[in-house]
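re: the backbone from monday

yeah here it is again, tokenized this time
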């Protein structure tokens, strides 16, 4: 079972230092009690050990790009703790298919076999869902329990304490997070969501976010992302 004790969250030193105040707040302790109970009584995703995977694969100090999702995939064996990402060998969900198609069109990179985006995270891309857990087959079931308070704090802390982060906001939900970001310090890339509903209406394809992101990184003298 996922343990609410702060030490068992087991984040890297940079994230632990930045987020300790959040972990000590009453809402977070209430949230962890809720998550403990949900994981004990229901099937929930991702695996308890992967709830904070986005932070474990992308250190605070190395964060160069932030992509914001809504909540985890709620089907079996899909969610791995990184937004839009699935485990190796799992069929790509529709939004991820459209992401890979846009990368192929935008950068010329061949459509990948694996939908596991840990390879992005290790290059400094924080793949952050606004809600980090979900009950199986019940989209949005863990929303408004406290996760949004926590992940909004993460965005605000990054905006305040790191320079020149590229925030990539897809769809109406993610775009609302722009108010948490200092646009004078950071770059924002906004477009429609990669879901079929949005993409088929012309709000996703040809946004060129992946090449645009790398151009910004290159202009800053930073290493580009291998998408």
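seq for it, each position gets an aa:
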């Amino acid at each position: 079972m996922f343990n609410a004790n702060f030490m068992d969250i087991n984040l890297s030193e940079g994230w632990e230092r930045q987020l300790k105040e959040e972990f000590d707040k009453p809402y977070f302790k209430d949230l962890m009690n809720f998550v403990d109970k949900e994981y004990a009584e229901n099937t929930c995703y991702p695996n308890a050990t992967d709830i904070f995977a986005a932070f474990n694969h992308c250190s605070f100090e190395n964060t160069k790009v932030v992509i914001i999702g809504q909540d985890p995939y709620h089907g079996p064996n899909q969610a791995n703790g990184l937004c839009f990402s699935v485990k190796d060998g799992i069929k790509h969900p529709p939004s991820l298919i459209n992401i890979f198609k846009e990368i192929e069109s935008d950068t010329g990179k061949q459509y990948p076999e694996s939908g596991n985006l840990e390879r992005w995270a290790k290059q400094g891309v924080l793949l952050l869902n606004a809600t980090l857990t979900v009950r199986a087959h019940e989209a949005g079931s863990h929303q408004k329990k406290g996760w949004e308070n926590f992940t909004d704090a993460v965005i605000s802390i990054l905006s305040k304490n790191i320079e020149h982060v590229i925030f990539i906001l897809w769809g109406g939900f993610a775009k609302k997070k722009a108010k948490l970001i200092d646009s004078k310090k950071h770059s924002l890339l906004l477009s429609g969501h990669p879901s079929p509903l949005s993409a088929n209406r012309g709000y996703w394809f040809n946004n060129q976010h992946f090449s645009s992101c790398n151009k910004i990184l290159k202009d800053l003298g930073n290493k580009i992302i291998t998408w």
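The first strand starts at residue 44 and ends at 45. Residues 1-7 have pLDDT under 50 and may be disordered.
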